[in-house]
Amino acid sequence: MRHHLNGQEWCVCESGFDIGKANVFETLFTLGNGYLGTRGTLEEGFRGEYSGTYLNGVFDAHDASVIDLVNAPDWLPLAVYVHGIRLDVQGCKVLSHQRALDLRQGVLWRETVFEDPQGRRTRLETLRFASFADPHLCVLRLAVTPENHGGPVVIESALEGRRSNLDLLPAYAGTPVFPPEVKWDKWAKSLHLAPVMATCDQDSLYLEMRTIDSGIAIGLASTLLPSVPPLRNTVERHATRVAERQEFLIPVGVTLSVDKFVTIHTSRETPASGIAARCQEELAGHLASGFEAALAANAAAWGRKWEASDIVIHGDAAMTQAARFNIYHLLITANPADPKVSIGAKSLSGEGYRGHVFWDSEIFLLPFYIYTQPEAAKALLMYRYHTLDGARDNARANGFSGAQFAWESADTGHETTPKWTADGRHRIWTGEEEIHVTADVAYGVLTYVAATGDTAFLTDYGAEILFETSRFWLSRLDEDTASDRLVLRRVIGPDEFHEHVDNNAFTNRMAQWHLVQAARIHDDLARKAPEALAALAHRIGLLPGEAAQWREAAGRILIPFDAGSGLIEQFEGYFALKDVPVTEWDGNDMPCYPAGYDHFNAGETRLLKQPDVVMLMYVLPDEFSDEAKRVNYAHYEPRTLHKSSLSPAIHSIMGVEVGDRARALQYFRRSALVDLLDNQGNTQDGIHIASAGGTWQALVFGFGGFRVRNARMSFRPWLPPGWSELQFCLFWQGSRIQLRIGREQASFLLETGPVTWVPILVENQEIILEAGRIVTASLCPETAS
């Protein structure tokens, strides 16, 4: 089956089985298609596995401290028994073990040679995928070869509904390290699934479970299709598990092949009464077409995704592979067909952050989709629209008007941030105080509209989001009589080390920007679409003078600023804190906590977890001069510890902008390899999907130099030493542009589409792109260096 794989530049590989790294590879090797994600655990399982299949939008709160993205029924289990002995990594000797994730077509290949206690060697090979052509289909091919023996072989396939989510962890003294086989046993688990139906016959298995609190039905149908008829086929049914066992006699050296097809549906998209019939009907159709047809359809769908999304770094194959790995995970986690789901902080690859949606969705993830997969971007923003009622409830619950988006959001938009860390030791305040997320959502809306020209989305959905959230800011701002300014007290900025602060610059400035933009959109609609504005005003009770109030309030918001130094103060009182220097760096040349400090007391100092003022200058590039960026970057960068995976990519982009280019490349590598090298130490919990989005931005916005400035595409690229060319695509106003950024020149091809010409800036020189014609621009020596 290895012949199905593409070349090394498209593959991420594992050689040898190391149980200490197994959970990390489970995350790395996650398969998905936006509808579901399945972690890359071994088909037969092992003690210490962290297996999981997650269905986008399937949340449940039963038996849990905080609502979870449910660890759904498992479609994967497929075990092999030889002479009655189960082949697995703990009951047999592993003579060789290799796996490869083919990023180009989203397939996971595996080959393992086992030796059982009697010295019998058996080779297993598998190939599996979650189809992009049919998101409800998962397929697994197994090949079994007895290498030095012949005799009975049993294949056991199951659908497993006995699943649980990790919930709470006891507070242990010190920092104990548990053996990998038992570390997940230390967690308290939450139960979210109850049995509905379990049936089995000689042709197929069917299992249906229902989430206990949210009432979502989940149905799975599966069957095995062997290369030769089995001697015997038996089935086993329990309330939460169904299985079939096929028995064979296999001569020495002969390979048995078995295909497992699985179809999955939920009551989110299919009426509960029809799930079983739909799963069975689709299963029969895929069986009739066969494995090769399903594989080819999946590869074709992937080809279309990559055509719009691929990035090639000529001169650096390793970083091209890393970029593709991050893009792969971005592609498998968004569902353009479902406007009621977004992307959790660990995508569909693990239970970290319980599947909750953060500001990451708009600031770190949305740009990738806007410029490569616009339909997915629209769906992500529609999730915010569909959870607007939850945001309204949040505002009312906190004593404010309008709509306040949750810091952590699940299916309804209500605030779902836990109050305490998993071990119960530390209070979490972000749900109450990290309110900038509301402005971040508005930022996402307007970034999408500017890039796509989708004014219908703005009129039909986006304006309502902007107006309701502007009402929130107006009610959240306080009068400060001493300064005659409007202030935001007791907040947490993006940095997150510093809690309960007043007038965080990022939060205040983004609220100000938000109010100005909402007033502008209101005025635009009044001129261009007065009937639509009148209908919206009637629906939400918008009064004629509200937009003027937003504009007036924006002009009075306090922004902490030191005119003498040119520094924006991160929040009031920040400059008075103890300035503790960073004196140690880890093996990746990243800062270590100074002695005596950690995440929970670093707020006593000027140390930062991640960019805050620097982040502000990144998201509002038109608002700050190059000199202001240099001054503030020079002050805050040395004090930033990068204890969030979100941090390095932004510093990479800003490093390019301010000329700190050696660090820019270092930060990019840190972001690009965060999961491949597990450099945060927690990849086992799921992919750092925001870092994946940040990695794409570092390549395109940083080294590619692309930014939208004054509503126009602008390019100021810089390529690191050794990179000869950077190649990628961007969507703009519905048309696709192919770009090749070299060391001395850049070329652009506007493909035929709804836009026939586009004016762009390349190093502040205007160039007109015409559809179907390659346009080349020279780059200045400073850029090419």
Automatic annotation (TrEMBL):
One BP annotation, GO: carbohydrate metabolic process
Instruction: Note whether Nucleotide-binding occurs among the keywords.
Output: no
Natural source organism: Gemmobacter fulvus
* Catalytic residues as annotated in Swiss-Prot or TrEMBL: 496
Name recorded for this polypeptide: Glycoside hydrolase family 65 protein
Enumerate the SUPFAM superfamilies for this protein: Galactose mutarotase-like, Six-hairpin glycosidases
Where in this chain does the record put each Glycoside hydrolase family 65 C-terminal domain?
A: 706-769
Xref: InterPro entries: 6-hairpin_glycosidase_sf (IPR008928), 6hp_glycosidase-like_sf (IPR012341), Gal_mutarotase_sf_dom (IPR011013), GH65_N (IPR037018), Glyco_hydro_65_C (IPR005194), Glyco_hydro_65_M (IPR005195), Glyco_hydro_65_N (IPR005196), Malt_Pase/Glycosyl_Hdrlase (IPR017045)
Q: Which residues form the Glycoside hydrolase family 65 N-terminal domain?
A: 14-268
Q: What is the lineage of its organism?
A: Bacteria, Pseudomonadati, Pseudomonadota, Alphaproteobacteria, Rhodobacterales
GO MF terms here are: carbohydrate binding; glycosyltransferase activity; hydrolase activity, hydrolyzing O-glycosyl compounds
